[in-house]
Design goal:
Blueprint lengths: L8 E5 L2 E2 L3 E15 L9 E16 L17 H5 L4 E7 L4 E17 L7 E8 L1 E4 L4
Antiparallel strand pairs: 1-2, 1-5, 3-4, 4-7, 5-6, 6-7, 6-8
């Protein structure tokens, strides 16, 4: 067994490598509803009620290659934003030719960018998704 190095990983969206991604964070949450009944101070059980997936990605800003230009974030008028389709993102281990994670139904939520003296412009995007699969497909 060996650890997976960030140097071996690419982030793909809809099968295309995202330019200059520097990091990604994926979170899968299962919301548990506490079942509480009259006459008992304690929760008697927890019932799963929803699963949510979020991800954030960090990028180096490339001239003439904004997130909008790359098709990762919507551009245009109201109809363009409303009709912006879902994406599929993959975390891909290029060295071992393995998809580590597949995130389905990805939609953009927010983006921020930052520039500091003596540095480069970086962009952070936040996204919501419908489903997360690991390399075993579950």
């Amino acid at each position: 067994m060996s650890a997976i190095s960030g140097a071996a990983v690419k982030i793909l969206f809809n099968g295309v490598a995202i330019g200059r991604a520097t990091g990604v964070s994926i979170s899968e949450n299962i919301e548990q509803f506490p079942v509480q009944i009259l006459g008992d101070i304690d929760v008697v059980e927890h019932e799963p009620t929803r699963r949510t997936v979020t991800l954030t990605a960090d990028f180096v800003r490339i001239r003439l290659k904004s997130l909008k230009e790359q098709g990762i974030f919507p551009r245009g008028e109201t109809a363009d934003v409303l009709n912006f389709g879902e994406m599929t993102w993959m975390v891909y281990d290029e060295v071992n030719d393995i998809v580590i994670a597949t995130v389905e139904g990805v939609v953009p939520e927010s983006k921020t960018w930052r520039v500091d003296q003596g540095s480069i412009i970086t962009v952070n995007g936040s996204f919501r998704a419908r489903r997360l699969h690991d390399e075993q497909g579950s």
